[in-house]
Write a structure and sequence with these properties.
This protein is α/β, with parallel strands linked by helices and 428 residues long. Helices cover 33% and strands 13% of the residues. Helix 1 (2-19) crosses helix 13 (350-357), helix 4 crosses helix 14 and helix 8 packs parallel to helix 12 (319-343). The radius of gyration is 22 Å and the shape is globular. Mean pLDDT is 92; it is low at 1-19.
Length: 428
């Protein structure tokens, strides 16, 4: 209890900094010691504005780098271009939307109109090869940033969209470090842990590998060296604890057993899971992934209810795997902090921020937590941010920049942005 109080107190202090809009008499906006004329943002899906399980125009527009760039205009920041989908293809890759709440349970549907695909097999999006500042690529990882061909039709379709055909073999590292920037934000590496975790700690391809710390650190240091040449400044972001997101905290053992007992008029007390060391009963320290609810796997033909037919490893991040991924993320973050210190860069501690809001805080009367749908910060996929979440994230970066460089960049007004878009009607 004492630890929880300390977390909540720290969160309130941090969020007060992140969300309060300063008045004009507090200070006049200024750039401090930084040239913000060409800001570029390097990262993955969070940087790109991915939300609700897809990349689409509304999410792109409120991506946190776009919100930061808008504030930078008050301190000498230049034009900030993003690879927006056109209005005719505004739904981009497609995404999920909340259509109803039935007895408190969400009902979602896939948006399938106004998509931006130019090829169905392989799936390829409409090209956008004009110069841009938001370089975020959904699915990009630290390790994969060094792989030639990730921008080809056989690689990452979001990266392929941004490259002329002649540059298909260019690595993301080369692409993102040769933009002639004056200032940068760097938030890459989340997927190096997230892909493994969301697959229940099971490796079944390059996007589900848990990147070794030494490899992560080597690539990170290469990025920082390249991005800071000529004494250019920037801000590095730590990697969030993936287990603090609704993707891992929403589906609980109690909820699963309650649902199956109600449907079967049974009296099941335990859930059996398959782990890397054998089959055992689940505990409250095991995390069931969000998509288990809709997959129709649990309880089917007794799956998970009997020791002989346990729930497969990929549906559960078990206690041992939770420890593994949290330890690895802590190692990544130690490397990020060391890299920031070595070059005198600002540090946006996203890890601390998201852990602090996990159990819930209030910002000027607005509840923010890691609760699915009602927590305001996370979108329907349980991992990526809502517009409110992006505004809060932008302010974490802005606070870090101001603190490190003596800048006076105004904060984003969080009240202007929404959480999860609720359906017009609720069915009881």
């Amino acid at each position: 209890m004492k630890k929880n109080k300390l977390y909540i107190g720290a969160a309130l202090a941090l969020l007060a900094i992140a969300s309060c809009k300063p008045s004009l008499d507090e200070y006049t906006p200024s750039a401090g010691s930084v040239n913000f004329s060409k800001y570029v943002a390097i990262g993955n899906s969070l940087t790109a504005g991915y939300a609700d399980g897809g990349l689409y125009l509304e999410g792109q527009k409120v991506a946190y780098p776009n919100l930061i760039a808008e504030q930078l205009k008050q301190v000498g920041g230049g034009e900030f271009k993003s690879p927006f989908f056109s209005e005719d293809q505004a739904n981009g890759s497609g995404y999920i939307t909340l259509t109803a709440l039935v007895n408190g349970q969400p009902v979602t549907a896939q948006v399938t109109d106004k998509l931006a695909y130019r090829s169905a097999s392989p799936k390829l999006l409409t090209k956008y090869t004009d110069p841009i500042n938001n370089l975020g690529v959904p699915g990009m990882r630290m390790d994969l940033s060094m792989v030639a061909g990730m921008g080809s039709p056989a690689g990452n379709m979001y990266f392929e969209r941004l490259l002329p055909d002649a540059d298909a073999k260019k690595t993301y590292f080369t692409y993102s470090t040769t933009q002639n920037h004056t200032f940068f934000s760097f938030a890459l590496g989340n997927n190096d842990a997230l892909g493994w975790a969301t697959n229940g700690g099971v490796v079944d391809g390059p996007t589900t590998v848990l990147t070794e710390t030494a490899q992560f650190t080597g690539i990170l240091n290469g990025y920082v060296q390249a991005l800071t040449e000529g004494d250019r400044k920037g801000v590095l972001a730590t990697i969030p604890d993936v287990t603090a997101t609704p993707y891992f905290t929403t589906v609980t053992k109690a909820a699963l057993l309650g649902a199956v007992n109600a449907a079967s008029k049974g009296n099941f007390q335990d859930i059996f899971i398959k782990t890397k060391t054998g089959v055992r009963k689940s505990t409250d320290k095991d995390y069931f992934i969000l998509t288990l609810s809709s997959a129709g796997v649990f309880g089917q033909n007794g799956t998970g209810l009997y020791e002989g037919i346990p729930l497969d490893d990929k549906w559960v991040l078990d206690e041992s795997e939770v420890t593994t991924v949290q330890t690895r993320i802590n190692e990544y973050n130690a490397a990020i902090k060391a890299a920031a210190n070595s070059k005198g860069l600002a540090l946006a501690d996203v890890h601390e921020f998201l852990n602090n809001v996990k159990d819930g805080v209030r910002i000027n009367g607005l509840a923010v937590s890691a609760k699915y749908i009602t927590g305001n910060a996370f979108s329907l996929d349980g991992i990526h941010l809502t517009p409110i979440g992006n505004a809060l994230m932008a302010n974490i970066f802005i606070s870090a920049i101001n603190s490190k460089y003596g800048s006076k960049i105004p904060q984003v007004d969080v009240a202007k942005y929404r959480g999860v878009k609720l359906p017009d009607t609720v069915t009881k």
